[in-house]
Amino acid sequence: MHKKHFFLSNNIAEARGFSPRNRRSGDHSLPTRDRAEHGQMVKGQYETAVNQAIVHLEERERQGLPVANGIYVDLKMDKSFIPNSLGKQDSPKGATIMKVTDNGDENDVDVTVYVKKDKKDWLKNKVDDYSCKNTAKGKPCNERLIAPINGVVATDIRTLYVSAEEFDTIPEEGSYIYELWMSHSKENSQESIENTLHQLGIEKMSEPLLFDGVDVWLIKSTKQQLSTLPLSLGYIEGIRPYHKPSILTSSNTEKREWSELIKGEITYDKDADVIVGILDSPLEPFTATSAATGLAARLAAQIKVENPELSMLSVRGLMVHSARWTAEMMRINNVEERMTLCGYGVPDEHAAIYSNEKCATYIFENKLEPYTQGGSGNIYGEMHYYDLPWPKDQLEDMGDEDVRIRITLSYYVKPSPGYAGRTHKYRYPSATLHFDLKTATETEEEFLCRRNKQEGEKTTQNDATRWNVKQQKRERGTVQSDWIECTAADLAEMDKIVVFPGPGWWKERKLDNVDNSVPYSLIVSIETKKTDIYNAVETAISNRIGVPIAQEV
Is the dihedral of CA 370, 372, 375, 377 positive or negative? Predict the structure, then answer.
């Protein structure tokens, strides 16, 4: 018998102040350095790079050419200690990460930073403190920044381009179309960028695409003109060749014509709850597009029709939540490889749309404020604590019977699609969310203390082996799903869940200028093999909330 999912909205969640426990970064430790010797090396190379760049800028000024208000340098750093940030754009710190490039070195990456001219002594001052001053804990000042630096060199177009090798292949003659990725800054208005491009003889091909934190300019330039951009513009995140998307029509004019054409041909029922549109030719031919798109849209529409109160966050979450690996997929023994090739598997239409006697699904929808203003910058804001209305008595009676709990977290982010975002996982999303589940042996207090520093001292450890997908793999996306197979008696004690924030670029911004609110859907299912569980869940929810909320369909 098909039964309704239990939609509880935000009725159960309790907001609590949150401070994260530091996550272990593996066995990596800071390089052991002779402070004086290492500091002298870093400072010397930095000053050489800065002086070299300033000479070029001064020469351009004498020639009346556009000049950037700062310089680019490359810090060759141990890849285990890449800083999340060095400073915000236009901040007094004067240094901002533009790009992180992995050139295939086993240990090092190139961290390209932009340093404003009036803050050119930024790294020199950091090194001076590192060489001779200690923190209150007796460690070298700025050690996490300076110790991982293995070299400093001046930056040119070859670093800001996709790669030095690709830049070298550009023909010396002829003009070609490129994407110019510009990080937001007060000194780079659209008008000033456009004027600079005009002065350099570089053609603007269209109006820029505007994103949070970065704008993308489409330009036509010779190789020589391209080479002058790092000397002419500050806050360049990267430059790459333009590749025409195959799924688009051949021109902006054609897109507008096509839009006008189909606008007049499409009719729809204004009273319909769900509308799904799939475009057909005359788009340009293209390959590698999944034929599953139509099937996925159909399933999403079916879920929404049968559960109209749900947001699309929950609809998306249920599609993943219901997915199972086929027998053929299970032949790939390594879960990491299986996830890479198959994702979460094939969605089960009935499980996505309905609960049943042996599978009861809770759905929560809420919003979390990940950050708040602290003394010297933004800190973490809140977590949500779910003390679930749990069929504890029923599960205890079932004893050693095998059961499964599956949890799916679905949320949206505002991406920062610049180079920094694509090369550093915490600079792409506006904020990240995560979930955790109480173990069978923890008390409520121990669970909260394990996850949240504000709750007290940590006395227990998470059992990472109990999950199938595992935390590191599931947290790579904005739909995170995982499950535990255990006895019913153990599951009876696993009745607490927390949803908490992680890093994101909002944390580096003025919170007045960002949304600082992340909507999410949390989906939890109890699955049994022998004993019916649905009615027991309904009773537990009714006892907690006071009214029955489910019905057969």
Answer: positive
Evaluate whether 369 touches 545 at the Cβ level (below 8 Å): no
Asked if residue 185 lies in contact with residue 90, where contact means CB atoms within 8 angstroms, the answer is yes
Report which DSSP code applies to 303.
Answer: H
Burial of 511 per CB tally in 10 Å (0-12, 13-18, 19+): middle
Tell me the pLDDT tens digit for each residue of 120-161. Answer: 999 999 999 999 999 998 999 999 999 999 999 989 899 999
Domain containing 212 equals 165-289
**Residues contacting 325, CB < 8 A, separation 6+:** 338, 342, 344, 345, 346
**Helix 35-62 and helix 122-132, axial crossing angle in degrees, nearest 10:** 170
Q: Report the candidate in 224, 218, 168 with the shortest Cα–Cα distance to residue 200.
A: 224
Task: Express each pLDDT in 403-462 by its tens digit.
Answer: 999 999 999 998 877 655 555 555 678 999 999 999 999 999 999 999 999 999 999 998
Q: For residues 224-233, b (16+ Cβ closer than 10 Å) or e, as one string? A: ebbbbbbbbb
End-of-domain residue from the set 155, 180, 205: 155
Residues 173 and 126 reside in one and the same domain: no
